[in-house]
Amino acid sequence: MTAKRQAKKEDLRTRLVTAGTQLIRDQGLKGLRARDIAERAGAALGGLYTVFDDLDGLILAVNSGTLKRLEAALERAIPPDATIEQTFLSLSLAYLGFAQAEKNLWAALFEHRMPEGVPVPDWHLAEHAFLIGLIAGPLAGRMPGATAEDIAIRARTFFSAVHGVIAVSLEGRFVGITPERLEREVAALARILAKSLD
Amino acid sequence: MTAKRQAKKEDLRTRLVTAGTQLIRDQGLKGLRARDIAERAGAALGGLYTVFDDLDGLILAVNSGTLKRLEAALERAIPPDATIEQTFLSLSLAYLGFAQAEKNLWAALFEHRMPEGVPVPDWHLAEHAFLIGLIAGPLAGRMPGATAEDIAIRARTFFSAVHGVIAVSLEGRFVGITPERLEREVAALARILAKSLD
DNA sequence: TTTCTGTATTGAACATCGTTCATTTTTATG
DNA sequence: CATAAAAATGAACGATGTTCAATACAGAAA
Asked: Domains plus CATH for chain A?
Protein backbone atom coordinates (compact mmCIF):
# COMPACT_ATOMS: atom_id res chain seq x y z
CA MET A 1 0.00 0.00 0.00
CA THR A 2 2.66 2.47 -1.06
CA ALA A 3 -0.15 4.21 -2.90
CA LYS A 4 -1.23 6.05 0.21
CA ARG A 5 2.05 7.90 0.23
CA GLN A 6 1.67 9.06 -3.33
CA ALA A 7 -1.92 10.03 -2.72
CA LYS A 8 -1.02 12.15 0.29
CA LYS A 9 1.75 13.86 -1.59
CA GLU A 10 -0.53 14.60 -4.50
CA ASP A 11 -3.16 15.88 -2.12
CA LEU A 12 -0.64 18.14 -0.45
CA ARG A 13 0.49 19.40 -3.83
CA THR A 14 -3.09 20.13 -4.82
CA ARG A 15 -3.79 21.98 -1.58
CA LEU A 16 -0.62 24.05 -1.96
CA VAL A 17 -1.37 25.02 -5.56
CA THR A 18 -4.98 25.83 -4.67
CA ALA A 19 -3.85 27.98 -1.77
CA GLY A 20 -1.28 29.72 -3.93
CA THR A 21 -3.85 30.33 -6.63
CA GLN A 22 -6.32 31.87 -4.18
CA LEU A 23 -3.69 34.06 -2.59
CA ILE A 24 -2.41 35.37 -5.92
CA ARG A 25 -5.99 35.93 -7.06
CA ASP A 26 -6.75 37.94 -3.92
CA GLN A 27 -3.51 39.79 -3.27
CA GLY A 28 -1.46 39.58 -6.42
CA LEU A 29 1.85 37.85 -7.00
CA LYS A 30 3.86 40.44 -5.14
CA GLY A 31 2.15 39.81 -1.81
CA LEU A 32 2.58 36.06 -1.95
CA ARG A 33 4.26 34.61 1.20
CA ALA A 34 5.33 31.04 1.84
CA ARG A 35 3.84 31.09 5.33
CA ASP A 36 0.43 32.18 4.06
CA ILE A 37 0.41 29.42 1.47
CA ALA A 38 1.29 26.74 4.00
CA GLU A 39 -1.28 27.99 6.49
CA ARG A 40 -4.08 28.13 3.93
CA ALA A 41 -3.12 24.69 2.63
CA GLY A 42 -3.25 23.32 6.17
CA ALA A 43 0.38 22.26 5.99
CA ALA A 44 3.55 23.02 7.84
CA LEU A 45 5.88 25.61 6.42
CA GLY A 46 8.46 23.01 5.49
CA GLY A 47 5.87 20.93 3.66
CA LEU A 48 5.97 23.36 0.79
CA TYR A 49 9.61 22.47 0.22
CA THR A 50 8.93 18.74 0.14
CA VAL A 51 6.81 19.30 -2.98
CA PHE A 52 8.54 22.25 -4.67
CA ASP A 53 12.18 23.27 -4.78
CA ASP A 54 11.22 26.82 -3.91
CA LEU A 55 8.45 29.39 -4.23
CA ASP A 56 9.21 29.79 -7.92
CA GLY A 57 8.28 26.16 -8.45
CA LEU A 58 4.91 26.68 -6.83
CA ILE A 59 4.30 29.84 -8.84
CA LEU A 60 5.05 27.95 -12.04
CA ALA A 61 2.49 25.35 -10.99
CA VAL A 62 -0.11 28.06 -10.35
CA ASN A 63 0.68 29.63 -13.72
CA SER A 64 0.31 26.24 -15.35
CA GLY A 65 -3.23 26.01 -14.06
CA THR A 66 -4.01 29.54 -15.15
CA LEU A 67 -2.73 28.80 -18.64
CA LYS A 68 -4.96 25.72 -18.84
CA ARG A 69 -8.03 27.74 -17.91
CA LEU A 70 -7.01 30.45 -20.35
CA GLU A 71 -6.61 27.91 -23.10
CA ALA A 72 -10.07 26.48 -22.41
CA ALA A 73 -11.61 29.96 -22.43
CA LEU A 74 -9.98 30.88 -25.73
CA GLU A 75 -10.88 27.65 -27.45
CA ARG A 76 -14.47 28.10 -26.33
CA ALA A 77 -14.41 31.51 -27.99
CA ILE A 78 -13.40 30.43 -31.49
CA PRO A 79 -16.50 30.53 -33.68
CA PRO A 80 -16.77 27.70 -36.22
CA ASP A 81 -16.67 28.68 -39.90
CA ALA A 82 -15.84 32.29 -39.17
CA THR A 83 -13.82 34.78 -41.16
CA ILE A 84 -10.33 35.47 -39.94
CA GLU A 85 -11.51 38.90 -38.84
CA GLN A 86 -14.24 37.39 -36.71
CA THR A 87 -11.81 34.85 -35.29
CA PHE A 88 -9.24 37.48 -34.33
CA LEU A 89 -11.96 39.61 -32.83
CA SER A 90 -13.42 36.78 -30.76
CA LEU A 91 -10.02 35.61 -29.56
CA SER A 92 -8.87 39.10 -28.64
CA LEU A 93 -12.03 39.91 -26.71
CA ALA A 94 -11.98 36.55 -24.97
CA TYR A 95 -8.37 37.18 -23.99
CA LEU A 96 -9.35 40.59 -22.68
CA GLY A 97 -12.27 39.07 -20.79
CA PHE A 98 -10.06 36.50 -19.13
CA ALA A 99 -7.45 39.10 -18.19
CA GLN A 100 -10.11 41.32 -16.63
CA ALA A 101 -11.85 38.49 -14.80
CA GLU A 102 -8.65 36.95 -13.45
CA LYS A 103 -6.52 40.07 -13.35
CA ASN A 104 -4.00 39.02 -10.74
CA LEU A 105 -3.63 35.45 -11.96
CA TRP A 106 -3.29 36.60 -15.54
CA ALA A 107 -0.77 39.25 -14.52
CA ALA A 108 1.25 36.63 -12.65
CA LEU A 109 1.79 34.81 -15.94
CA PHE A 110 3.88 37.71 -17.19
CA GLU A 111 5.10 39.39 -14.01
CA HIS A 112 6.86 36.38 -12.61
CA ARG A 113 10.64 36.32 -13.04
CA MET A 114 12.97 33.48 -12.24
CA PRO A 115 16.02 34.39 -10.12
CA GLU A 116 19.01 35.91 -11.90
CA GLY A 117 20.49 33.40 -14.32
CA VAL A 118 17.85 30.69 -13.83
CA PRO A 119 15.91 30.07 -17.06
CA VAL A 120 12.20 29.33 -17.21
CA PRO A 121 11.91 25.52 -17.54
CA ASP A 122 11.23 24.32 -21.06
CA TRP A 123 8.06 22.47 -20.06
CA HIS A 124 6.57 25.73 -18.87
CA LEU A 125 7.65 27.69 -21.93
CA ALA A 126 5.94 25.00 -24.00
CA GLU A 127 2.70 25.57 -22.11
CA HIS A 128 2.51 29.06 -23.62
CA ALA A 129 2.66 27.68 -27.13
CA PHE A 130 -1.08 27.21 -27.58
CA LEU A 131 -1.50 30.98 -27.61
CA ILE A 132 0.56 31.09 -30.78
CA GLY A 133 -1.14 28.04 -32.23
CA LEU A 134 -4.60 29.54 -31.90
CA ILE A 135 -3.56 32.41 -34.15
CA ALA A 136 -1.21 30.48 -36.41
CA GLY A 137 -4.08 28.23 -37.48
CA PRO A 138 -6.24 30.90 -39.14
CA LEU A 139 -3.12 32.74 -40.26
CA ALA A 140 -1.76 29.83 -42.27
CA GLY A 141 -4.50 30.13 -44.86
CA ARG A 142 -3.61 33.76 -45.48
CA MET A 143 0.15 33.27 -45.80
CA PRO A 144 0.42 30.73 -48.59
CA GLY A 145 4.11 31.04 -49.40
CA ALA A 146 5.27 31.24 -45.80
CA THR A 147 7.11 28.57 -43.83
CA ALA A 148 5.67 27.24 -40.59
CA GLU A 149 8.25 29.31 -38.74
CA ASP A 150 7.23 32.48 -40.57
CA ILE A 151 3.63 31.84 -39.62
CA ALA A 152 4.46 31.11 -35.99
CA ILE A 153 6.53 34.27 -35.71
CA ARG A 154 3.82 36.41 -37.26
CA ALA A 155 1.23 34.78 -34.99
CA ARG A 156 3.40 35.67 -32.04
CA THR A 157 3.63 39.24 -33.26
CA PHE A 158 -0.13 39.54 -33.50
CA PHE A 159 -0.68 37.96 -30.10
CA SER A 160 1.96 40.19 -28.51
CA ALA A 161 0.40 43.30 -29.99
CA VAL A 162 -3.03 42.56 -28.52
CA HIS A 163 -1.45 41.38 -25.30
CA GLY A 164 0.51 44.62 -25.08
CA VAL A 165 -2.57 46.78 -25.33
CA ILE A 166 -4.28 44.83 -22.57
CA ALA A 167 -1.20 44.61 -20.36
CA VAL A 168 -0.41 48.31 -20.50
CA SER A 169 -4.00 49.10 -19.56
CA LEU A 170 -4.41 46.62 -16.74
CA GLU A 171 -1.02 47.48 -15.28
CA GLY A 172 -2.31 51.01 -14.84
CA ARG A 173 0.52 52.61 -16.75
CA PHE A 174 -0.40 55.94 -18.28
CA VAL A 175 -3.68 57.50 -17.42
CA GLY A 176 -6.71 55.28 -16.90
CA ILE A 177 -9.11 54.11 -19.55
CA THR A 178 -12.59 52.70 -19.08
CA PRO A 179 -13.21 48.99 -19.71
CA GLU A 180 -15.59 49.85 -22.54
CA ARG A 181 -12.99 51.99 -24.21
CA LEU A 182 -10.35 49.31 -23.78
CA GLU A 183 -12.70 46.80 -25.39
CA ARG A 184 -13.15 49.12 -28.36
CA GLU A 185 -9.42 49.57 -28.78
CA VAL A 186 -8.71 45.86 -28.58
CA ALA A 187 -11.41 45.24 -31.16
CA ALA A 188 -10.02 47.95 -33.40
CA LEU A 189 -6.53 46.48 -33.23
CA ALA A 190 -7.81 42.96 -33.92
CA ARG A 191 -9.57 44.27 -37.02
CA ILE A 192 -6.49 46.18 -38.20
CA LEU A 193 -4.36 43.06 -37.85
CA ALA A 194 -6.89 40.90 -39.69
CA LYS A 195 -7.32 43.44 -42.48
CA SER A 196 -3.56 43.62 -42.97
CA LEU A 197 -3.80 40.11 -44.42
CA ASP A 198 -6.05 41.09 -47.32
CA MET B 1 26.01 78.94 4.02
CA THR B 2 23.08 76.61 4.41
CA ALA B 3 23.71 75.77 0.76
CA LYS B 4 26.34 73.21 1.65
CA ARG B 5 23.66 71.09 3.29
CA GLN B 6 21.48 71.11 0.21
CA ALA B 7 24.46 70.42 -2.01
CA LYS B 8 25.48 67.39 0.05
CA LYS B 9 21.99 66.03 0.04
CA GLU B 10 21.68 66.47 -3.70
CA ASP B 11 25.06 64.85 -4.15
CA LEU B 12 24.00 61.90 -2.03
CA ARG B 13 20.81 61.62 -4.03
CA THR B 14 22.74 61.64 -7.27
CA ARG B 15 25.17 59.00 -6.05
CA LEU B 16 22.31 56.78 -4.89
CA VAL B 17 20.42 57.06 -8.16
CA THR B 18 23.59 56.46 -10.15
CA ALA B 19 24.40 53.40 -8.06
CA GLY B 20 20.87 52.10 -8.41
CA THR B 21 20.95 52.66 -12.14
CA GLN B 22 24.22 50.79 -12.54
CA LEU B 23 23.05 47.89 -10.38
CA ILE B 24 19.78 47.52 -12.26
CA ARG B 25 21.63 47.78 -15.56
CA ASP B 26 24.02 45.01 -14.49
CA GLN B 27 21.82 42.67 -12.50
CA GLY B 28 18.24 43.58 -13.29
CA LEU B 29 15.59 44.98 -10.99
CA LYS B 30 15.01 41.73 -9.17
CA GLY B 31 18.55 41.52 -7.81
CA LEU B 32 18.56 45.06 -6.46
CA ARG B 33 19.53 45.26 -2.76
CA ALA B 34 19.57 48.30 -0.50
CA ARG B 35 22.97 47.37 0.92
CA ASP B 36 24.56 47.14 -2.52
CA ILE B 37 23.20 50.53 -3.48
CA ALA B 38 24.48 52.19 -0.32
CA GLU B 39 27.90 50.59 -0.65
CA ARG B 40 28.30 51.56 -4.30
CA ALA B 41 27.13 55.09 -3.52
CA GLY B 42 29.69 55.33 -0.71
CA ALA B 43 26.96 55.95 1.83
CA ALA B 44 25.72 54.28 4.98
CA LEU B 45 22.74 51.96 4.70
CA GLY B 46 20.51 54.39 6.54
CA GLY B 47 21.47 57.23 4.24
CA LEU B 48 19.27 55.79 1.54
CA TYR B 49 16.27 56.33 3.78
CA THR B 50 17.13 59.97 4.43
CA VAL B 51 16.62 60.66 0.72
CA PHE B 52 13.89 58.18 -0.23
CA ASP B 53 10.99 56.79 1.76
CA ASP B 54 11.86 53.30 0.66
CA LEU B 55 13.44 51.31 -2.18
CA ASP B 56 10.41 51.96 -4.35
CA GLY B 57 11.17 55.66 -4.21
CA LEU B 58 14.69 55.10 -5.44
CA ILE B 59 13.47 52.80 -8.20
CA LEU B 60 11.03 55.47 -9.35
CA ALA B 61 13.93 57.92 -9.49
CA VAL B 62 15.98 55.49 -11.57
CA ASN B 63 13.01 54.93 -13.87
CA SER B 64 12.60 58.68 -14.20
CA GLY B 65 16.12 58.94 -15.54
CA THR B 66 15.59 56.03 -17.90
CA LEU B 67 12.43 57.65 -19.25
CA LYS B 68 14.32 60.88 -19.90
CA ARG B 69 17.00 59.06 -21.88
CA LEU B 70 14.32 57.13 -23.74
CA GLU B 71 12.53 60.33 -24.60
CA ALA B 72 15.74 61.88 -25.94
CA ALA B 73 16.48 58.78 -28.03
CA LEU B 74 12.99 58.74 -29.54
CA GLU B 75 12.94 62.42 -30.33
CA ARG B 76 16.29 62.07 -32.02
CA ALA B 77 14.75 59.34 -34.18
CA ILE B 78 11.86 61.32 -35.61
CA PRO B 79 12.73 62.28 -39.18
CA PRO B 80 11.60 65.75 -40.25
CA ASP B 81 9.04 65.94 -43.04
CA ALA B 82 8.45 62.21 -43.09
CA THR B 83 5.34 60.23 -43.93
CA ILE B 84 3.43 58.79 -41.03
CA GLU B 85 4.62 55.36 -42.08
CA GLN B 86 8.25 56.45 -41.92
CA THR B 87 7.65 58.13 -38.58
CA PHE B 88 6.04 55.05 -37.04
CA LEU B 89 8.82 52.90 -38.42
CA SER B 90 11.59 55.11 -37.07
CA LEU B 91 9.96 55.46 -33.67
CA SER B 92 9.31 51.73 -33.36
CA LEU B 93 12.83 50.75 -34.32
CA ALA B 94 14.32 53.39 -32.06
CA TYR B 95 12.19 52.05 -29.21
CA LEU B 96 13.39 48.54 -29.99
CA GLY B 97 16.97 49.74 -30.14
CA PHE B 98 16.70 51.40 -26.74
CA ALA B 99 15.07 48.35 -25.20
CA GLN B 100 17.82 46.10 -26.53
CA ALA B 101 20.65 48.42 -25.54
CA GLU B 102 19.32 49.08 -22.04
CA LYS B 103 17.43 45.85 -21.54
CA ASN B 104 17.38 45.74 -17.74
CA LEU B 105 16.72 49.43 -17.26
CA TRP B 106 13.99 49.40 -19.88
CA ALA B 107 12.45 46.28 -18.34
CA ALA B 108 12.48 47.93 -14.92
CA LEU B 109 10.14 50.60 -16.29
CA PHE B 110 7.42 47.98 -16.67
CA GLU B 111 8.40 45.26 -14.21
CA HIS B 112 8.34 47.48 -11.17
CA ARG B 113 5.25 47.19 -8.98
CA MET B 114 4.34 49.35 -6.01
CA PRO B 115 3.36 47.47 -2.84
CA GLU B 116 -0.21 46.21 -2.58
CA GLY B 117 -2.61 49.13 -2.52
CA VAL B 118 -0.01 51.86 -3.08
CA PRO B 119 -0.61 53.65 -6.38
CA VAL B 120 2.15 54.88 -8.68
CA PRO B 121 2.58 58.59 -7.92
CA ASP B 122 0.94 60.90 -10.43
CA TRP B 123 4.16 62.74 -11.22
CA HIS B 124 5.69 59.47 -12.39
CA LEU B 125 2.65 58.45 -14.42
CA ALA B 126 2.88 61.82 -16.12
CA GLU B 127 6.48 61.10 -17.10
CA HIS B 128 5.24 58.31 -19.36
CA ALA B 129 2.99 60.67 -21.28
CA PHE B 130 5.56 61.72 -23.88
CA LEU B 131 5.41 58.21 -25.33
CA ILE B 132 1.80 58.84 -26.22
CA GLY B 133 2.47 62.34 -27.39
CA LEU B 134 5.11 61.25 -29.88
CA ILE B 135 2.52 59.12 -31.63
CA ALA B 136 -0.48 61.34 -31.08
CA GLY B 137 1.22 64.14 -33.02
CA PRO B 138 1.45 62.39 -36.39
CA LEU B 139 -1.83 60.61 -35.68
CA ALA B 140 -3.84 63.80 -35.29
CA GLY B 141 -3.52 64.65 -38.98
CA ARG B 142 -5.02 61.30 -39.93
CA MET B 143 -7.98 61.41 -37.54
CA PRO B 144 -9.72 64.64 -38.54
CA GLY B 145 -13.03 64.12 -36.78
CA ALA B 146 -11.58 62.71 -33.59
CA THR B 147 -11.33 64.43 -30.20
CA ALA B 148 -8.00 64.86 -28.50
CA GLU B 149 -8.95 62.03 -26.16
CA ASP B 150 -9.75 59.74 -29.07
CA ILE B 151 -6.37 60.46 -30.57
CA ALA B 152 -4.53 59.95 -27.29
CA ILE B 153 -6.27 56.63 -26.73
CA ARG B 154 -5.51 55.40 -30.21
CA ALA B 155 -1.89 56.55 -29.83
CA ARG B 156 -1.71 54.55 -26.64
CA THR B 157 -3.09 51.52 -28.43
CA PHE B 158 -0.45 51.78 -31.15
CA PHE B 159 2.35 52.28 -28.68
CA SER B 160 1.16 49.38 -26.53
CA ALA B 161 0.99 47.07 -29.54
CA VAL B 162 4.59 47.73 -30.52
CA HIS B 163 5.66 47.67 -26.90
CA GLY B 164 3.95 44.31 -26.45
CA VAL B 165 5.84 42.71 -29.31
CA ILE B 166 9.16 43.91 -27.92
CA ALA B 167 8.33 43.08 -24.31
CA VAL B 168 7.19 39.53 -25.03
CA SER B 169 10.39 38.91 -26.96
CA LEU B 170 12.83 40.44 -24.52
CA GLU B 171 11.14 38.78 -21.57
CA GLY B 172 11.99 35.47 -23.21
CA ARG B 173 8.43 34.19 -23.14
CA PHE B 174 7.73 31.62 -25.83
CA VAL B 175 10.58 30.26 -27.85
CA GLY B 176 13.40 32.59 -28.79
CA ILE B 177 13.63 34.78 -31.84
CA THR B 178 16.71 36.39 -33.36
CA PRO B 179 17.20 40.16 -33.06
CA GLU B 180 17.03 40.50 -36.85
CA ARG B 181 13.73 38.68 -36.93
CA LEU B 182 12.38 40.77 -34.10
CA GLU B 183 13.35 43.92 -35.97
CA ARG B 184 11.48 42.69 -39.04
CA GLU B 185 8.37 41.94 -37.02
CA VAL B 186 8.41 45.31 -35.29
CA ALA B 187 8.83 47.00 -38.66
CA ALA B 188 5.98 44.95 -40.12
CA LEU B 189 3.67 45.89 -37.26
CA ALA B 190 4.60 49.57 -37.51
CA ARG B 191 3.73 49.50 -41.20
CA ILE B 192 0.45 47.69 -40.58
CA LEU B 193 -0.56 50.27 -38.00
CA ALA B 194 0.39 53.18 -40.26
CA LYS B 195 -1.42 51.68 -43.28
CA SER B 196 -4.57 51.23 -41.20
CA LEU B 197 -4.92 54.99 -41.28
CA ASP B 198 -5.26 55.25 -45.06
C1' DT C 1 38.13 81.28 17.02
C1' DT C 2 35.24 78.94 20.16
C1' DT C 3 30.92 77.42 21.71
C1' DC C 4 26.54 75.95 21.12
C1' DT C 5 22.38 74.12 18.72
C1' DG C 6 19.94 71.85 15.47
C1' DT C 7 20.43 68.83 11.55
C1' DA C 8 22.43 64.99 8.95
C1' DT C 9 24.77 60.63 8.97
C1' DT C 10 25.70 56.32 10.79
C1' DG C 11 25.34 51.30 11.39
C1' DA C 12 23.67 48.14 14.98
C1' DA C 13 19.30 46.30 15.94
C1' DC C 14 14.68 44.77 14.50
C1' DA C 15 10.95 42.52 11.93
C1' DT C 16 10.01 39.68 8.25
C1' DC C 17 10.99 36.84 4.64
C1' DG C 18 12.52 32.23 2.05
C1' DT C 19 14.78 28.20 3.09
C1' DT C 20 17.00 24.32 5.76
C1' DC C 21 17.36 20.37 8.72
C1' DA C 22 17.36 17.76 13.15
C1' DT C 23 13.49 15.86 15.28
C1' DT C 24 9.08 13.70 15.41
C1' DT C 25 5.35 11.33 13.27
C1' DT C 26 3.54 8.38 9.90
C1' DT C 27 3.71 4.58 6.70
C1' DA C 28 5.20 0.27 4.88
C1' DT C 29 7.22 -4.26 5.74
C1' DG C 30 8.99 -8.75 8.01
C1' DC D 1 3.83 -6.08 16.81
C1' DA D 2 8.41 -4.44 15.89
C1' DT D 3 11.30 -2.19 13.06
C1' DA D 4 13.05 0.50 9.27
C1' DA D 5 12.21 3.92 5.88
C1' DA D 6 9.92 7.90 4.49
C1' DA D 7 7.47 12.11 5.21
C1' DA D 8 5.99 16.00 7.92
C1' DT D 9 7.10 19.37 11.24
C1' DG D 10 8.43 23.91 12.96
C1' DA D 11 12.38 26.00 15.28
C1' DA D 12 16.41 28.03 13.63
C1' DC D 13 19.32 30.33 10.02
C1' DG D 14 20.75 33.73 6.81
C1' DA D 15 19.41 37.56 4.12
C1' DT D 16 16.55 41.38 3.41
C1' DG D 17 14.22 46.24 3.99
C1' DT D 18 13.60 49.48 7.40
C1' DT D 19 14.15 52.06 11.90
C1' DC D 20 16.30 54.78 15.44
C1' DA D 21 19.43 55.96 19.29
C1' DA D 22 23.96 57.53 19.08
C1' DT D 23 27.43 60.17 16.74
C1' DA D 24 29.39 63.66 13.61
C1' DC D 25 28.77 67.73 11.34
C1' DA D 26 27.32 72.47 9.62
C1' DG D 27 25.83 77.01 10.68
C1' DA D 28 24.89 80.81 14.01
C1' DA D 29 26.30 83.37 18.06
C1' DA D 30 29.83 84.91 21.19
From this structure: 1-52 (1.10.10.60), 55-195 (1.10.357.10)
